[in-house]
Amino acid sequence: MNKITPILSIGIPKPLVDGPEKTTGKAMFAADFQVVDALVGRILRSPLAHANIVAIDTSKAEALPGVLAVITEADCADSYGVLPIAMNEWALARHRVRYRGEPVAAVAAVDVATAQRALDLIDVSYEELPAYFTADQARAQGAKLLHDDKPGNIEREVDFDLGDVDAGMAAADLVRELDFHCAEVCQAQMEPHAAFAEYDAARERLTIRPSTQVPFYVHKMLARTMALPESHIRVIKPHIGGGFGCRTETLQSDLIAGLLARKARATVKVVLSREETFITHRGRPETQIKMKVGMKKDGTITAVDFSAQQRGGAYSGYGIVTILYAGSLIYGIYDIVSARFKGCRVLTNTPPCGAFRGHGTVKTRFAFENLIDGMATELGLDPFAVRRANLLVAPTMTENDLLVNSYGLDQCLDWAEKASGWKQRKGKLGPNKGLGMACSHYISGASKPKHWTGEPHATIHLRVDWDASITLLTGAAEIGQGSSTVMAQCVAETLGVDMGRIRVIASDSALTPKDNGSYSSRVTFMVGNASIDAAQNLKALLIEAAARKLDIPPADVECLGEVYRGGQQDQGLTFEEVVMEALNGEGTLAVKGTYDTIPESWGGRKYRGAAIGGTMAFSYAAQVVEVTVDPYTAEITVDKVWVAHDCGKALNPLAVEGQVQGSVWMGMGQAMSEETRFHEGLPLHANMLDYRVPTIMESPPIEVGIIEANDPHGPFGAKEAGEGSLTGFLPALTNAVADAMGVRATELPLTPDRLMELLEKKARDDRTAANAEGKVA
Amino acid sequence: MKTTLSLTVNGINRDDVVPDNMLLVDYLREKAGLTGTKIGCDGGECGACTVLINDRPRHACLTLAATCQNAKVETVDGLSRDGRLTAIQRGFHEKLGAQCGFCTPGMIMASEALLRRNPDPSEADIRAALAANICRCTGYVKIIEAVQFAARELSA
Question: What domains are defined for chain B?
Answer without folding.
Answer: 2-78 (3.10.20.30), 87-155 (1.10.150.120)
